[in-house]
Model the fold of this input.
Amino acid sequence: MRDTVLIVDDQSTNRSILAEILKNDYKIMEAVNGVEALSAISGHRAEIAVMLLDIVMPKMGGQEVLEKLNEAKLIDEFPIMVCTGENSMDVVEKCFGLGISDFIRKPYEGDMVLQRVKKLDSLYKARRESNEKLKKFAKVLQNQNKILEQQAKVQKQGNINLMDSLGTIVEYRNTENHNHIKRVKAFTRVLATHMMKEFLEYELTEEKVDMITAASALHDIGKIMIPDNILFKPGKYTDEEFSYMKSHTIRGYDIIAQISDSWDKELMGYCKEIARSHHEKYDGRGYPENLKGDRIPISAQIVSVTDCFEALISESLYKKAYTFDVAFQMIVNGDCGVFNPKLMEAFRNSRQEFMEIANEGESGEILDAMDEANVEI
Done:
């Protein structure tokens, strides 16, 4: 059971302060330098929930400890918070490059230390649980894939169920809002239906709305390929890390392209459009290709709005949820980027239906009902 905080600091006063802050919530293990820290990890790594690591220590400093853990492929075994009195950010940035999860400056503020340790502990516990579920889902998907390979014809409804499973994997890996896919699908169906009825030039039909709704489940499938140290990083991304994070759009497209041969071509076309282009913006300031206007597929434009709105009204590990009214106005005002004016008109006309989904979405009842009511495509 991971219920221990390992405090690594050569100053007994610092260790005592941290131990006093954490003792009511965690068992405490102490080390006076990096050598003792590695020994403690070797013998007790399954018990450690979080490690608090000083940088400047005799015999072996904090950076060398991180290097040794990387060499042993143990850097992701538990979260590491660097405790430093350094004013320069260079050392901290090097430590983030070596895989730490957070840092805190000396002198310590008790409540802040405890809150951040608990948050890291919670994040890693959720991640470990999600990885176990991911393995189980992977086995299920492998079995389903073998069956699909033996079938001469794949039914579209079976495709949708598999897409939902893949979307669920992404949700569990993110460890935050496990209703995200259902709500995005529900919002997508509403918004796409309004676009179909109000803007005939996009030539949407009920069948296309069904397919766009189903395909929205895979909009973030590329995040499976993003490393944990980037996907779960609590601090600000470097330019290189942000560029890598943005690559989930291309990676998602590639994943879908690799599995699409035996699936319905039109449905897979929507999946690829959405995965690749749901972060494009109408003014050309999105990614990955800086597409502008209606060069962005209408399917991706719709999911761009619904994904953004759902994220705004959902609480995450790093932000509180916005109220429905604030989130709605943020989308309309362009606070989240520029959207198609016609899409914004349909969005405003969808307000009441969006509110019903948002209000009922917590229990999942209305979302399940909408899924069950889907026409088989």
Observations:
- Residues 236 and 255 are 27 Å apart (CA to CA).
- Residues 110-150 form the longest helix (41 residues).
- The chain has two domains: 4-120, 151-373.
